[in-house]
Design goal:
Histidine-containing Protein, Chain: A; 9 strands; PTS_HPr_His_P_site; 2 domains; PTS_EIIA_man-typ_sf; phosphoenolpyruvate-glycerone phosphotransferase activity; alpha/beta; Phosphocarrier protein HPr
């Protein structure tokens, strides 16, 4: 991978946890942590940041840095001021620590260059907003008439079947989520990595299939039906691939 990831945190456990998460979804991306103070407590260390940057750049052409709090940002900025040559290869991004790291790692795994990985991390902030990702529905336990299956946006969707064509270059199909937690982090990463090389736009319920966070934000669960759509040359193959992954349940069904 040409872009590495450096996680700068006050907490060793926080950084290690995020690193573990990114490794699950982007196994080929170099991830280095600079966490805790020199005595192993909560805090930041300029020396540890410098060591993490050196280690990251030893295995990649460039690096994206995420920091958990303001003082961690200041520590990274100090490291870059001490060695101005690093600024050509290192970008400190303003992004949510966990979501930004996931988005950056998956994008780097897809082969993006430095600016593309930076953009992915910064765009991750869009996944955090005032609206809840999941809507909890309380059941009264009373039996009632069957209701039509709905997509994540509440619209009625057709029964699953063979792919259908809308526009001349568009292919879409409806598929049922098989695994209990739907497109959570690991399955979303599998889908994102799988469609990245097709070179055609692919969506699941309108969400960009190359974006882990966009797929996760759908809040899908077992039994829900989603529409997979692709446009352009090779769209039918892309739709078939994503449909097969979802129907397979990602090994969790």
């Amino acid at each position: 991978m040409s872009v590495a990831l450096v996680l700068v945190s006050h907490s060793t456990r926080l950084a290690d946890g995020v690193a573990e998460l990114t490794a699950e979804m982007a196994p080929d991306v170099v991830v280095r942590c600079a966490a805790g103070d020199v005595d192993g407590g909560l805090g930041t260390s300029l020396e540890r940041v410098q060591e993490a940057l050196d280690a990251a750049l030893a295995g990649a052409a460039s690096a994206v840095v995420l920091a958990d709090l303001g003082s961690a940002v200041l520590t990274v900025e100090s490291a870059l001021e001490i060695d101005p040559d690093l600024t050509r290869r290192v970008r400190l991004v303003s992004a949510p620590f966990v979501e930004g790291a996931v988005a950056a790692a998956v994008t780097a795994q897809q082969g993006a260059q430095l600016e593309g990985v930076v953009a992915a991390a910064e765009d991750a902030a869009r996944s955090i907003g005032p609206e809840p990702v999941y809507e909890l529905v309380e059941s009264s336990g009373a039996e009632g008439p069957p209701v039509a299956a709905t997509g994540t946006q509440g619209e009625v969707v057709p029964e699953p079947g063979a792919p259908s064509s809308g526009a001349a270059d568009e292919v879409s199909t409806v598929v049922e989520i098989r695994n209990p937690l739907g497109l959570h982090a690991r399955p979303a990463a599998v889908v994102a990595r799988s469609v990245a090389d097709f070179g055609v736009p692919v969506t699941v319920e309108g969400a960009d299939a190359t974006s882990v966070l966009a797929l996760m934000s759908l809040g899908t669960t077992a039994g829900q039906r989603v529409t997979v759509t692709a446009r352009g040359e090779g769209a039918d193959t892309a739709v078939a691939l994503v449909t097969g992954l979802i129907e397979g349940g990602f090994g969790e069904a």
